[in-house]
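Please, structure for the following, as tokens.
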Amino acid sequence: MPFSYNTSAELFPAAIRKKKRTGFAYRRFDSAAEAVRFAMEDLPADLLNGAYLQVDEARFDQNGIRGLYESPDFPLERRSVKSDDETTADAA
């Protein structure tokens, strides 16, 4: 059965990050596509590590989320994500 990007989804932080200084808290999204894009484009990599996405009964770790994002079936436009080198150059 193919994955449905239109299904609502929940994004959970890593268990170790559930303390006050989490950086992000549990979030619910109207669509899995929005959740995947948020995880890949807006979360720093260290916050994504250990986080998981739940869609219906399926859970996706960092690698699973990346696979959904990189899939040719991903329905949303991908924003370009700057590398650390580009960010440093822009700040100078």
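Residues 9-91 form one domain. The helical segments are 32-42, 45-48, 62-70, 84-91.
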